[in-house]
Amino acid sequence: MPDAENFEPRIVAFLCNWCSYAGADLAGISRLHYPPSIRVIRVPCSGRVDPFFILQALQQGADGVLVSGCHPGDCHYLTGNFVARRRFAVLNDLLEFCGIEPGRVTFAWVSASEGERFAKLVTEVTEKVKKLGPNRRLKKELP
Amino acid sequence: MDRSEKLRQRARELLEKGEVVMVIGSGPPSDSGISPVLFATTPEQAENLTASTSCAQNLANYLLKVRDRGKVAVVARGCDARSITVLLQENQLKRENLYILGIGCEGIVENGRKSVACAVCRHPNPLIYDEMIGEPAAVAEPDPEVSRADAEWEQLSPDERWERLSAELDRCIRCYACRQVCPNCYCPVCFVDASMPQLVGRTHNLSDNMVYHIIRALHMAGRCVECGACHRACPVGIDLMRFNRRVAKTVRERFGGDAGTDLSQPPALTVFKPDDPQEFIR
Ligand code: SF4
Ligand code: SF4
Ligand code: SF4
Ligand code: FES
């Protein structure tokens, strides 16, 4: 078990192809530094993110999950993120209700031009998850 | 003429005239106070119908199973009618194939105790019907015990909530009775049964149990009518209404309205407003 000092969280990031993934790309080509904690999964749209994906990432041992799409009004498919937003709102409330630590799962809007914001976001999310420590709640441990 | 007698008379007429092929309602209550579901296809069978509102099932569930048979009459309390509304919104039933005999509901009482769903019911009277049998029921004050328990839950720390819920859901044997009795849980292949790919583990491992319950509750968001059929069906007594109340509250507070109360509106999670609250998004 990693001790708290050396704990390097693994954070699964679901990024929409058209905005947030491009934002991450921009952060990269701008040579911005941010923690190497995220494992990016590119999805066509935030509307493609089934809440089940988020739970499964946690089940399989991710310490945190980041979901990011285009700002409202900018979705490549026009309304994908609006519909997703309602789903995420209910999921977010349910996670709170169940006692999943606030900060395990983060939702964000990041545009293709917000490379700097993306780097900052990942830094903050990583710090937060580090403070929470390893994910033990939803992680599936076989007896 | 008392309400049950009136109901029997109307059911007989509907069957005799061939206006419906079946009447779904409930029979005389047993000693525990619970009425069994009754399916009448002949006027004689309709003789056993009662206007008891203490049937543990949500009768809309059965409408799905006989929807290919022609026009069916159903005795509907507030929650049965709300489920029917959800099924109509989702194109699972045809309104012209239904004849809704509405009854004002006094709640489901088993061994002298009101079912927890009924103790906080906000819609005891059907909001859609073809005719009402008897008088509408008065909306009772919600049981303060339930609101107190919900408020207390919200005060707990995440750690305490997790601990309590873990203890509760560790007992779930994943029999899926809660899904089977729910009229609005009708997917031909439920996510827990999908095998290509398999989405959630089949064991009653705590992590899988949590995921089952979170996703089930999510799938019911804006669609659960808080009838409590799932809660009553659970063989190990898991407090499913705790989940359902929370989700209904979230939907009500964020998007407005109770599931199945307005046929002209689509279910809350299938639509959006550009200015839906998003304080939780960074
Ligand atoms: S739990 Fe979800 S997938 Fe399963 S039947 Fe209900 S709505 Fe369908
Ligand atoms: S989830 Fe339970 S309370 Fe909600 S509609 Fe289904 S059976 Fe009724
Ligand atoms: S009815 Fe009860 S035991 Fe069965 S799957 Fe549902 S919650 Fe679990
Ligand atoms: S394409 Fe980015 S949120 Fe829909």
From TrEMBL, chain A:
Coiled coil: none annotated. Residues 11-133 form the F420-non-reducing hydrogenase iron-sulfur subunit D domain. InterPro entries: MvhD/FlpD (IPR003813). The keyword Iron applies. GO terms for molecular function: iron-sulfur cluster binding; metal ion binding; oxidoreductase activity. Keywords: Iron, Iron-sulfur, Metal-binding, Oxidoreductase. The keyword Transcription does not apply. It comes from the Bacteria. This is Hydrogenase iron-sulfur subunit.
Automatic annotation (TrEMBL), chain B:
One of its GO terms (molecular function) is iron-sulfur cluster binding. It comes from the Bacteria. InterPro entries: 4Fe4S_Fe-S-bd (IPR017896), 4Fe4S_Fe_S_CS (IPR017900), Helical_ferredxn (IPR009051). Gene3D superfamilies: Alpha-helical ferredoxin. Residues 163-183, 215-246 form the 4Fe-4S ferredoxin-type domain. Keywords: Iron, Iron-sulfur, Metal-binding. Pfam families: Fer4_8. This is 4Fe-4S ferredoxin. It comes from candidate division WOR-3 bacterium.
